[in-house]
């Protein structure tokens, strides 16, 4: 409103806007041009399709430069920019509010001056009045202008450029002040003007209805705004600098856990897998990251340990297999060389030699078959799924053990408590599982063969069967077969290793009677392939018991539970 009033002037007294015929068209043309799509870049000679023109990679270079800046510096820069933006915004808002408040005070001062109608009706001198801090201009209906106050305000701030307004225009303006520029003066400044229509007596003439313009300079507003701007600038710069320094310290401390993670990662890269990230509150991002990294490092360390253990066992397995195969091969080759050299000069020696060669070949064939069996188990080949009665297999295994050593007492008993003292518990009538009958029969054959091989002749043995509820509860019963003997047994250290491949509790490693050391390893592999597990225990009266756990078939008939 004020800016419109300050530009109005015309010969007839009606304010008009200054002529600027070319400015609107230029602005419209500029706006239309800004909305038009950019023209495609002109093709440059020597560039192939897809090449980046010179200068086209500026954004990429800037991005690459930012990526090289440390994270701490980027965070501090972002915080400083945010602080500066906030300070500038707050300063601008404060400056605007204070300026508006001061201008409002000037408007109230103008209202008080203009409201003094009695003073305006007094006779005014055409030669002016004494010093005042405001400027009064009376413009009569016939166009005469009479300035009333000149010094010292006008001499300092210049004379306000009062627009030419008719009485009707002043009346239409109402009580709205407006701002005008100044001319002359030692320090010209803008003026705040308010116009009213009132009867005024000039000199001795009768009162004439005139337009009275009262103006107050805005020098105090400008001075206060300048002081406030300098104060806000100093305070803002101090706030930004102090904030950036505080941000640098806080970011440095906040990134300390990341540096610890970096140090830990460097130690791990050097080969120390036991290093862990220092613990931090899990509610923080660094704490969550550290916990995840520690969990990952634990898994990696475990995986490396498992791999190293697997490689160690594989190396030992290959070494043991080579050693086991070399012995019968050396035997066969040695007897062959004796025969070729003519050392076997009689038929009895030839027959004995052929028998030894046959025994060595048979042991080698058994070893190769055991190795192939373990390889098939390791490959995870699918097994036949059929209903197998373990009770019938247990009776067959007991009969085989009796055939190997008729002096033994071999019984098939139950796992439950005995019905009477000195009387073993009766086995269940049947104990059905789902699996491969040939493989499960091999399990029992290896177990009773282990008893026959490692216990003295005549040592009693039992095959116990029953149903045991595992840790999963009544809905997951397991069929249990336990082959136990009352021989010398093994030590706890030996019991932990009896299922290892090529392990023999007998340190003499007698291959003629000690076997290949793969029997119990095959038992563990077959039972594991059927979803079960195997363990050893020492019975109260001595000896060794090998217990096999297998998942019970979904429907059983007559299988009893054992405590």
TrEMBL record:
It is found in: Cell membrane. One of its GO terms (molecular function) is phosphorelay sensor kinase activity. It catalyses: ATP + protein L-histidine = ADP + protein N-phospho-L-histidine. Residues 9-36 have a biased composition (Low complexity). Its EC number is 2.7.13.3. The chain crosses the membrane at residues 75-98. Keywords: Kinase, Membrane, Phosphoprotein, Transferase, Transmembrane, Transmembrane helix, Two-component regulatory system. PROSITE patterns: HAMP (PS50885), HIS_KIN (PS50109). PANTHER family: SENSOR HISTIDINE KINASE TRCS, SENSOR HISTIDINE KINASE YKOH. This is histidine kinase.
């Amino acid at each position: 409103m004020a800016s419109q009033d300050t530009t109005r002037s015309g010969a007839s007294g009606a304010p008009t806007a200054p002529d600027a015929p070319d400015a609107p068209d230029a602005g419209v043309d500029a706006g239309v041009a800004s909305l038009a799509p950019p023209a495609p870049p002109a093709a440059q000679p020597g560039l192939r399709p897809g090449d980046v023109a010179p200068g086209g990679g500026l954004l990429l270079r800037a991005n690459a430069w930012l990526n090289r800046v440390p994270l701490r510096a980027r965070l501090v820069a972002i915080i400083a920019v945010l602080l500066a933006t906030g300070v500038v915004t707050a300063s601008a808002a404060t400056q605007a509010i204070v300026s508006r408040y001061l201008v409002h005070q000037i408007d109230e001062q103008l209202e008080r001056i203009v409201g003094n109608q009695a003073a305006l009706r007094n006779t005014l001198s055409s030669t002016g009045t004494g010093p005042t801090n405001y400027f009064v201009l009376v413009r009569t209906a016939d166009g005469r202008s009479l300035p009333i106050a000149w010094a010292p305000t006008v001499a300092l701030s210049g004379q306000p450029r009062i627009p030419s307004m008719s009485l009707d225009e002043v009346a239409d303006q109402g009580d709205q002040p407006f701002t005008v520029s100044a001319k002359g003066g030692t320090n010209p400044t803008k003026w705040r003007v308010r116009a009213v229509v009132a009867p005024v007596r000039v000199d001795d003439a009768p009162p004439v209805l005139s337009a009275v313009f009262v103006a107050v300079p805005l020098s105090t507003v400008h001075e206060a705004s300048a002081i406030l701007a300098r104060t806000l600038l100093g305070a803002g710069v101090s706030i930004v600098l102090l904030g950036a320094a505080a941000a640098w310290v806080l970011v440095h401390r906040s990134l300390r856990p990341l540096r610890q993670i970096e140090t830990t990662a460097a130690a791990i890269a050097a080969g120390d897998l036991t290093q862990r990230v220092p613990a931090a509150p899990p509610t923080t991002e660094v704490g969550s990251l550290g916990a995840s990294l520690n969990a990952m490092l634990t898994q990696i360390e475990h995986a490396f340990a498992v791999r190293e253990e697997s490689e160690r066992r594989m190396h030992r397995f290959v070494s043991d297999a080579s050693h086991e195969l070399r012995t019968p091969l050396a035997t066969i080759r040695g007897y062959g060389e004796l025969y070729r050299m003519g050392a076997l000069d009689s038929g009895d020696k030839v027959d004995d030699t052929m028998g030894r060669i046959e025994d060595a070949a048979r042991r080698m064939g058994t070893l190769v078959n055991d190795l192939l069996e373990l390889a098939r188990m390791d490959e995870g080949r699918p097994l036949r799924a059929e209903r197998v009665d373990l009770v019938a297999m247990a009776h067959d295994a007991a009969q085989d053990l009796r055939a190997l050593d008729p002096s033994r007492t071999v019984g098939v008993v139950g796992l439950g408590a005995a019905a009477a003292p000195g009387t073993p518990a009766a086995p269940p009538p049947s104990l059905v599982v789902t699996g491969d009958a040939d493989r499960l029969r091999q399990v029992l054959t290896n177990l009773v063969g282990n008893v026959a091989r490692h216990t003295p002749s005549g040592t009693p043995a039992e095959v116990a069967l029953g149903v045991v509820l595992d840790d999963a509860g009544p809905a997951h019963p397991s069929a249990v077969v336990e082959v136990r003997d009352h021989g010398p047994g093994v030590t706890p250290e030996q019991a932990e290793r009896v299922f290892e491949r090529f392990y023999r509790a007998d340190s003499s490693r007698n291959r003629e009677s000690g076997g290949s050391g793969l029997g119990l390893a095959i038992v563990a592999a077959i039972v594991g392939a059927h979803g079960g597990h195997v363990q050893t225990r020492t019975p109260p009266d001595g000896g060794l018991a090998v217990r096999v756990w297998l998942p019970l078939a979904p429907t059983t008939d007559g299988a009893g539970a054992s405590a």
